[in-house]
Every structure is written in C-alpha cells, then in structure tokens.
Write a structure and sequence with these properties.
CATH architecture of the largest domain: 2-Layer Sandwich
Radius of gyration: 21 Å
Strand content: 5-15%
Number of domains: 3
Strand order of the largest sheet: 2-1-5-3-4
Number of helices: 7
Oligomer: single chain
Largest sheet: 5 strands, mixed
Bound molecules: iron/sulfur cluster, FE2/S2 (inorganic) cluster
Length: about 240
C-alpha cells in the first residue's frame, strides 16, 4: 500500500500504531513513538551504513531481520523491535564484538552487553585485535585495539562533516583497520586536527592526547611540556 495523500505512513510497532512521514526509517519511526532500538554504528549526524546490525528488527513477512537504521517504513508494516530472534541476534553480535575488541571504554556497548545477557566467554578462542596505540601527533592518539569499525570517524572526516579525507581503511577481513592513506603519520596527511573524529568515536579508540597522557601517569605540567614541544615541531 502507498502512503496517504499527506505523505504519511501508518504502521504498527510492537503492537502500537504509529503514523510517520513517508521515507522515515524504522528507527526514526520507533523513536517518534517512544520506542528504543539499540544502535552502535549509527550516529544522528552521520550517514547510516548499517554496519554493526545491532539495530535489527523483525518485520512481518520479511525473510530476514532488517537493520532499523536504514530500512524504510511502508504503509501497513508490522514491526517487532524485541523478539526471541531479535534478541538472540543482538546478543550474538555483542558476543562477537566483545571477543575481538577491547570494549573497556565503550560504556554504551557495555550496557547493551548487560541488557542482552551476552556471554563474554562465548568465543574463548577468538583472536583479539592487538594493535599498539598510534601516538604520532600532539592532539590525539589512535588505539585500534578498541576500534569496532563503526566508520563514524571516516565519515565525519569526509562528506558527513569536514571534507578532509585524512582517514580511510587498510587491509581486508579481520585485518581491516582504520588508517591514513599509505599509513602516513597523521601530521603528514590532510588532517586539520578538528577533533570531530574523536568526538564521534564510541569506544575510546580515538582519544585526546592530554587525556591519554594523564592516564599514562603524567602530571599536567609534564603533559603541557610534551604537547607544546610536539606542536612546535609540527610548525617547523
Ligand atoms: S576509530 Fe572509533 S569512530 Fe573510528 S571506526 Fe573505530 S570505533 Fe568507529
Ligand atoms: S546501528 Fe543500525 S546497523 Fe549499526
């Protein structure tokens, strides 16, 4: 069925009727009607790419679970945001993420792990990402052992915000990693140190340098000396 003449669509979300603008995503419709669907890769100011799949929902008549952050509503659609199948899928995604990535500084994901009862020992043989933190500039560090490949940093560095294109990715499969082009140190790239990538990172993989140095046990005076010296070096 098509939208009504006023361009709105009526659907059912967890048994409640919702009327939303045609073209809305299921996530937007659920939010408008007060429902909560978990998200990880999705960010309100980034283009949704449906990478993590934590937002999957059950849509009547659909063969597979649909990612609510990109799937669009249609007239008469019936959506279930929680079901045995949805919860099992979310739990497995969380268990796989937890088995491969250091999520110690990802509070939102930690909360989902508790909510969905994810078994943190489910994949004991899994290989963890183990890259050492990259400390190559005075403004922020990149600790890809904590990276979940949500792509937000790449997107805000490109068309979603900054149009700087300093970040991309390297390798394939498990070895995929966010990287600069040709793995150049950040000061040798187009990076303007706007900090937007740090702002959207949900896991602490990107962190202000001063915060990181504090965690390493440096005093504020020592940190000032280090970062000032590094900034002077960049100007020369
Ligand atoms: S560094 Fe952070 S923002 Fe970038 S992809 Fe990894 S987790 Fe996402
Ligand atoms: S939040 Fe929808 S796929 Fe990640």
């Amino acid at each position: 069925m098509s939208p009504t003449a006023d361009g709105r669509v009526t659907l059912s979300i967890d048994g409640q009727t919702a009327t939303v603008p045609a073209g809305s995503t299921i996530l937007e419709a659920a939010r408008q009607s007060g429902g909560a669907i978990p998200t990880i890769c999705f960010h309100d100011y980034c283009t949704a790419n449906a990478l993590c799949r934590i937002c999957v929902v059950e849509v009547e008549g659909a063969r597979v679970l649909l990612p609510a952050c990109v799937a669009r509503v249609s007239e008469g659609m019936s959506v279930r945001t929680r079901s045995e199948r949805v919860d099992r899928s979310r739990k497995t995604i969380l268990e796989m993420l937890d088995s491969a990535v250091d999520l110690a500084e990802a509070p939102e994901i930690q909360a989902f792990i508790s909510e969905y009862g994810a078994d943190r020992e489910r994949f004991p043989e899994a290989e963890k990402r183990a890259a050492a933190p990259i400390d190559d500039n005075p403004m922020y560090i990149r600790d890809y052992a904590k990276c979940i490949l949500c792509w937000r940093c790449v997107q805000v560095c490109a068309e979603d915000a900054q149009y700087t294109y300093a970040l991309s990715f390297s390798d394939r499969g498990f070895a995929t990693q966010i990287a600069t082009f040709f793995d150049r140190p950040m000061p040798a790239t187009t990076c303007v140190f706007c900090g937007q990538c740090v702002g959207v990172c949900p896991t602490g993989a990107l962190k202000p340098k001063r915060e990181w140095l504090l965690e390493q046990g440096m005093t504020p005076d020592e940190i000032q000396q280090v970062t000032r010296a590094e900034r002077r070096k960049k100007r020369t």
